From TrEMBL:
Keywords: Endocytosis. The keyword Transmembrane does not apply. The keyword Flavoprotein does not apply. Residues 1-119 form the SHD domain. The lineage of its organism: Eukaryota, Metazoa, Chordata, Craniata, Vertebrata. It comes from the Eukaryota. One of its GO terms (biological process) is endocytosis. This is Stonin 2.
């Protein structure tokens, strides 16, 4: 696989999978993959692109949790996230970048939990653990004059 940035066109189809095209307007993608409930979108980054500037990049990772035992100072068990990069995408257009991140986040939130075989989840865990990190984001449009909320969207991750 190559490790350089190249131009592609990305399409989110049916809020379930990404299609990658070599250029806009083609009918057949060169690659596509389903979004899964164990996928996570990384924090946005700004990277060197070429001699002319920088590029906004984001990864979609497959996240699994592995149980690790610790013995000092007393025996304990923790569940560590292991991330495998599925794809990394970038653009110099910041508005497109934000739009893509929001679209993928909403799609991941709308995936049914039953799409994973729950009988295989946690089979090798000796101790159960739940960790919750919550981040709320609010997007709203206010009416001029009386400041009523005309349209809103709330994202909790």
């Amino acid at each position: 696989s190559s490790r350089h940035w190249g131009p592609i066109y990305v399409k989110l189809k049916d809020n379930k999978y990404l299609q990658l095209f070599y250029e806009k307007g083609l009918e057949k993608p060169f690659k596509e993959f389903n979004l899964e409930i164990n996928h996570e979108i990384s924090e946005p980054k700004l990277q060197n692109y070429d001699e002319n500037g920088r590029i906004h990049s984001v990864r979609i990772d497959r996240v699994t949790y592995k149980e690790k035992k610790k013995y000092q100072p007393k025996p304990a068990v923790s569940h560590i996230a292991e991330k495998e990069q599925v794809i990394k995408l970038g653009t110099t257009n910041y508005d497109d970048f934000l739009s893509f991140i929001r679209a993928v986040q909403y799609s991941l939130m709308d995936l049914p939990a039953s799409s994973t075989d729950l009988s295989t989840v946690g089979l090798n865990y000796q101790e159960e653990e739940i960790t919750v990190d919550v981040k709320d984001e609010f997007y709203g449009i206010l009416a001029k004059g009386d400041n009523r909320i005309v349209q809103h969207n709330v994202l909790t991750r």
